[in-house]
User: What shape does this take?
Amino acid sequence: MEFTHYADRLLAKRNPNRIFYLVEVIFGFELRLASGASFFNTPSWTIELFGTMVQVKTKIETPEAPAAPGLLSQAVVSNGNIYVAGQIHSTPDGKLLEGSTEEKVHQVMKNLAAILKAAGADFSNVVKVNVYVTEISELPKLNEVYKTYFTSEPLPVREAVCVKALPLGANVEISLIATKD
Assistant: This one.
């Protein structure tokens, strides 16, 4: 209780140096902010524990893609990997885009591109893609749009899965994993 109360007071004063010192003294490991990170905005913590550097999760957010606050992060960076939550064909204001399969896939890819950009990456950094569709016969149309976004070798690995339903009545959902250079 004592530690929690003291840490809360330090956070209220927004003094990262004191917090780092407190963590070093109490837990015996060094805590540093990764280069370019903002302590009170989107922290990216690096912990040195017994001489081993460990990267802790960093939340990625952008207003350029739909959000689900309190439910999930748009993306999380951990140990040099970017894990992007599944994106459906909704606009950044949360409205489901109606139209052709091609238009829907373009919207999904715009959402993914915005999140990757916020994480400091792009489609060339993607290593793994999961595609979910509610109608497998639409996969050839999806593939025509998909291949325009992934143009550099090696192409990411991918699964395409047909499911009964997707959130908000969407027809397409794509999630991905990318690496940070």
